[in-house]
Amino acid sequence: MYQRILLAVDGSRSSDLALSQAITVAKATGSEVKVLYVADDNDIFFTAGSYDPHKLMEGILAAGRDALAAAATRLADAGIPHSTLILEKPVSPGQISTTIVEQADRWNADLIVIGTHGRRGFRRLVMGSVSEGVVHKSNKPVLMVRSEIEE
């Protein structure tokens, strides 16, 4: 069964739900969990106005550190062996799914757990879906945890 679970988080409600499922699976199988946050400033194309790219990236990294700390606390409280990793750059801009799959392969994960956002419309067409990309690019089992639709 599963011994190494890679959990991709982004601080959203769906990644919180994915964390809950990873905890359930890890408890049942005695697995270790590695929590991954991929910092990507690609969302800047969907915000209006001027910005300071350094401040933007620092905000993204701070959100990543917060998401990892919250996940680590819940995993520790559940008694699950775990580690965390923040990657400041994806394999290439906008390629979060490829980065997640690469990390799962590098760490020899048995299962990838990821939340889905249920995005619709223009933003989904432009960005694609990270979770769907992981499913298509990985040869490992992927547990996709669906959240409510985000507009």
Model description:
The protein has 151 residues and is of the alpha/beta class. It has one domain: HUPs (Rossmann fold). It has five helices and five strands. It has helices spanning 13-29, 53-77, 96-107, 121-127, 130-137; strands at 4-8, 32-38, 82-87, 111-116, 142-146. The chain has a five-stranded parallel β-sheet with strand order 3-2-1-4-5, with helices on both faces. The N and C termini lie far apart (37 Å).
Which features would summarize this protein structure in a list?
single chain; 151 residues; five-stranded parallel β-sheet; 5 helices; 46% helix; 19% strand
Topology at a glance:
Blueprint: E1 4-8, H1 13-29, E2 32-38, H2 53-77, E3 82-87, H3 96-107, E4 111-116, H4 121-127, H5 130-137, E5 142-146
Parallel strand pairs: 1-2, 1-4, 2-3, 4-5
Q: Helix and strand string, N-terminal first?
A: EHEHEHEHHE
Overall 3D geometry? globular
CATH topology: Rossmann fold
Helical/strand content category: alpha/beta
Question: How many strand units?
Answer: 5
Subcellular location: Cytoplasm
Domain UspA: 1-146
Main location: cytoplasm
Keywords: Cytoplasm
Concise summary:
The chain has 151 residues and is α/β, with parallel strands linked by helices.
